[in-house]
Input
Amino acid sequence: MWEGAGSVIRVKRSSNRGSKLVESISYYLCSLSPKSTTLASGIRGHWLIENQLHWVKDVILEEDLSPQKSGCSARNFSILKTWVLTLLRIHGFAGIKAGISYLSNNLKYILSFCT
Output
């Protein structure tokens, strides 16, 4: 099939979005030999990062719509957005959108992050 391929993985996911059941199937090609616990852990780790960071940056912070598409400005804005998300989570904001809305009208609280 593919030179160096150690395994092909099929992952079926089910989740609830509101009252709707959503199912998807993903396939992974991997150079590792098939050991389900190791591969599952790697896949879960990837999706944890995707759901907790990239999805939030794409959907809530609209990073994909940003005019900065490449180079230093794109990297710098991405770093700043990650920093903002980290600060919001450290200060107890589970809902990022609500946290940004609250902080947008509370300069004193924002400045308290700097101390």
In short: Residues 51-112 form one domain.
